[in-house]
């Protein structure tokens, strides 16, 4: 065998393009901002899942008629809200009776309705804002609306090999800023994938493994209450947010991101 006939090594860039986006399947699954960027290269639609609490808060707000502007976590949210004529949500502990809009789904369920709400968060909101720049449709999903999202995707022809769905679990952050995969977002993403399990393109291995975690969880609300993220909120005094988030299939609202704003699909 001559040297010229030996197989050429594949570059890291070519390998990434070839396999990291889970080719050949109609529904795919990944984590965080990098996973969203990878799936965004090849998928026809992205579904962002941040159960505690961004996408749950989006579902609540959109269900009440508000338009939600995703925005990365930071002090610039208030400036951006002023520019677009919106109200900026604040941190849970910064809420006041005069300013009850925050990332808390329970608070948003009773806060006065505003036309436009800027909703910053370090995970789901940042991922949604970045995904919006791809020009793809972006859907906000949580445990409350997972089946409704799945039905909407299938009704619009997503889930084939030619129009794949990318489901992104946002995850949380370790103190050093790195991604912490989270139970609640894996179960939320898997609930969407469960509604997509019969799509013609089938599930990627990654999506099937996420779905297997859901199948082995006999009590999803209990798992979310007992996981690190759930306990963090409950022990911090925000148990109501967890209770709102674990009401599975309670909503038919499908928040769709168009031109940088979530509204009802």
From TrEMBL:
Gene3D superfamilies: ComB-like. GO terms for molecular function: 2-phosphosulfolactate phosphatase activity; magnesium ion binding. This is Probable 2-phosphosulfolactate phosphatase. It comes from the Bacteria. Pfam families: 2-ph_phosp.
């Amino acid at each position: 065998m001559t040297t010229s006939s030996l197989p050429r090594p594949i570059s890291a860039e070519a390998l990434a393009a070839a396999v990291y986006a889970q080719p050949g399947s109609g529904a795919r699954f990944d984590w965080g901002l990098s996973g969203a960027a990878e799936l965004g290269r090849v998928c026809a639609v992205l579904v962002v899942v941040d159960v505690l609490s961004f996408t749950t808060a989006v579902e609540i707000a959109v269900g009440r008629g508000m338009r939600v502007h995703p925005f990365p976590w930071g002090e610039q949210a208030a400036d951006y809200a002023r520019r677009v004529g919106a109200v900026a949500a604040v941190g849970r502990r910064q809420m006041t009776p005069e300013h009850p809009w925050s990332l808390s789904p329970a608070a948003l369920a009773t806060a006065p309705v505003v036309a436009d709400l800027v909703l910053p968060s370090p995970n789901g909101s940042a991922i949604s804002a970045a995904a919006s720049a791809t020009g793809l449709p972006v859907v906000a999903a949580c445990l409350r609306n997972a089946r409704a999202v799945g039905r909407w995707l299938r009704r619009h022809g997503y889930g084939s090999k030619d129009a794949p769905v990318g489901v992104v679990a946002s995850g949380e952050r370790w103190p050093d800023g790195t991604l912490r995969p989270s139970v609640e977002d894996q179960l939320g993403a898997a609930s969407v994938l469960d509604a997509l399990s019969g799509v013609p393109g089938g599930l990627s291995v990654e999506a099937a493994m996420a779905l297997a975690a859901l199948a082995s969880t006999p009590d999803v609300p209990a798992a979310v209450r007992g996981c690190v993220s759930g306990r963090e909120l409950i022990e911090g005094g925000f148990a109501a947010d967890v209770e709102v988030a674990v009401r599975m299939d309670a909503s038919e609202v499908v928040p769709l991101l168009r031109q940088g704003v979530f509204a009802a699909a």
